[in-house]
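Reopening: ArnT family glycosyltransferase still failing for me.
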Amino acid sequence: MTTIVETAPGAAAEPAESPKPVSTRWVRPSYWVLLAGTAVLYLWGLGSSGWANSYYAAAAQAGTQSWKAWLFGSLDAGNAITVDKPPAAMWAMGLSGRLFGFNEFTMLLPQALMGVGAVALLYATVRRTSGPAAALIAGVALALTPVAASMFRYNNPDALLVLLLVLAAYFMVRAVGPVSARASAGWVALAGCALGFAFLTKMLQAFLIVPGLALMFLVAAPAVSVWKRLGTLLIGAATMIASSGWYIALVALWPADSRPYIAGSTDNSLLQLAFGYNGLQRILGQEGPGPGHGPGPGGPGHGPGGGANLMFGGDPGIGRMFGLSMGTEASWLLPAALIGLLAALWLTRRTARTAGLRAGLLMWGGWMLVTAVVFSFMDGIIHPYYTVALAPAVAALVGISVAELWRVRERLASRLVLAVMLAGTGVWAFVLLNRTPDWLPALRWIVLIGSVLTAVVLVMVAHRPGKLTAVVALAAMVFGLGATAAYTVETVVAGHSGGPIATSGPKRDNGFGGPGGPGGPDGPPPGFGRADDPALAELIAGADGRWAAASVGSMMVSDLELKTGESLMAIGGFTGSDNSPTLAQFQQYVADGQVRYFLDRQEGGRGGPPGPPREEHGSAAQITDWVKATFTKTMVGDVPVYNLSAPHN
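Support: Ran it again with your exact input. Result attached.
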């Protein structure tokens, strides 16, 4: 295998061992093959397995029916309540539906294209500091990360989040290049803008990469004083605040009675949502028992949690990223990335402060370590697919370190580190593949034996020029990426069966006592809220009013919205625990004829988040009690339905 390492303009000269320049005719074709392969992988069969997460799908559909619903990320076109995330991801899916017609494919198309864009941006970012070989390895590693294939074919906000985070990294790498102080400030401002919109995608999670970006700039920015570098970072912070603050101000200034309630907040505030339910409470676990303590999404009683539950992260601790829940999502190359980071930092210990290679290592290393530590020890709600935020950093560090160690492979120490990275990857792949023993049982042995043998040969012959070295390099790539590639392909071809929580790879126990697989549960468990009764759908489709029906919680509401195209009110938001609407507000809606039916999820055993039935509380309980006392019940299938235009005599 022949590699070259480009020296970024203005960077320190590379060590004397650098090989003579070789042909770069392979660079452009390899780049386009990478993007074409990624596009095929992420677009293949896209949308063929349904609506993915119906919660976000219903919000995207509402955005195609009402511009106000699109602006606020409302769950319904009647604008009763938003989803419990900011709306940036819904903006993309809603616009796609408006342009091309709303269906499963057009909803997921922006997600897949974001995946291709993230790979392209990662390639461009790594190439600026470490050359095309490192960039190509990084791009392939990201594209073949199972959780990336899952999220870039799913409708959760994480696809847009990852794209914007990699974009911010690209801008920061440009800021430490050979530019003037004024141009550097401009690139930092653009990075802040990207982070601001990432905040409007998934709130405080966007800021986990800020320490890595700031560290790189402080260490490797152009030759100006530390105070000027700090001042430039303040410019980036200002644009970050401005690019997210405009929307926060819009929500705060918009009259509350003419916009949807901000789901997940306690005071109808986007800031409270950011720092509460989607912020510190996720880290500290204050919103209810965390994943290591019991129930799942949204607090107590929402489904089983605990160590091995695939829907949650397992017990907090240093081993969570490698555990049964998260290990197969993004940790295939994590050991190699950690070893490579340490080795590459040692190799660059004597380079100049502004050396591009070391700058890249500081940025990606800071990104990976801070994100991994927070994910490992947060005690609130966390799901396996969150690890997609680690994937770009892991891929970049693998690409950079492998290319740099290969460049100086004449040194025995470099070959030994490469061998340890390869053999360690093979051993860890064996462990991960052994967690699904019935799926391709021979693969784990092929990868293990092949990687170990190739590692031994690499130490012996990789420093010698000739075809054998190229064969060894190719074998190392095949065995190093073989397991994660197979898991990723399985994620794509197996498809998604829907559900609020996506997992990658072959089918396995979903944590609720049944089989699961890519995209979540393999069919809804009892009480999951699937609106599969044709009579119920027909009733809703024929209703009039601002809302065709209302029900506590979002699951049955979301499915019925997607099935009928009608607007339904999710009382209390996703879990039914938000205090919206109040009993007085709901009574006024009924008096004005704005809501036609009430569907009783509690009595019907449907409509709430997965897990055993739970007692409703707050305004949801008050509304349910008032409806039952005031209106007559009719069974439609197995769902109790109350006609809100026909009270008791």
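Residues 49 and 496 are 5 Å apart (CA to CA). If you still see a failure, please send the error message rather than a screenshot.
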